[in-house]
Amino acid sequence: MAKLKTGRHTSAIKAWRKSEKRAARNKGVKAEIKNAVKEFNTLLKTGNAVKAKEKMRKIESLLDKAAAKGVMHKRTSSRKKSRLTLRLNSFNSSSSP
User: Fold this and answer.
1) Residue 11 falls inside a structural domain
2) Helix 49-69 to helix 10-46 angle, to the nearest 10 degrees?
3) Which domain holds residue 72?
4) Is residue 33 pLDDT above 90, yes or no?
5) Mean pLDDT for all residues in the chain
6) What is the CATH number of the domain that holds 84?
7) Considering the domain boundaries, does residue 83 fall inside one?
8) Within a domain: residue 6?
9) In a domain, 5, yes or no
10) pLDDT class for 28, splitting at 50, 70, 90?
11) Contact, 1 vs 17, CB < 8 A?
């Protein structure tokens, strides 16, 4: 890429392009996680613990992948998994006689 006349640097332009691509990817991953958590919450509200447990496994996988890709921090993903697991366990203990 040739030098630009107005003082803009090619490296800065490339960094901007990269940040736009990464932001779009991160947004998609976060949206997928949020939608899965919403489905999980509706499953708990309807009382379907078996499907909620299956959904929990998928959410854990999504969170681990997001942490590995750098979309979110690994401790953020761990905290989210922990809170969802607590919610699932408290639902199971309250629904069991």
Assistant:
1) no
2) 170
3) 17-95
4) yes
5) 91
6) 1.20.58.110
7) yes
8) no
9) no
10) very high
11) no
Q: Sign of dihedral through CA atoms 88, 56, 84, 28?
A: negative
pLDDT in tens, 37-83: 999 999 999 999 999 999 999 999 999 999 999 999 999 999 999 99
As given in the structure block, the two tokens for residue 92 are 């199971």
Record the pTM.
0.81
Domain count, the chain: 1
Count Cβ neighbours within 10 Å for each residue of 46-68 and write b for 16 or more, e otherwise: eeeeeebeebbeebbebbeebbe
Question: According to the model, what pLDDT value does residue 93 have?
Answer: 83
Q: Which residue has the tokens 């697991």?
A: 85
Residue with tokens 């107005």: 6
The torsion region of residue 37 among left (phi > 0), alpha (psi -120 to 50) and beta comes to alpha
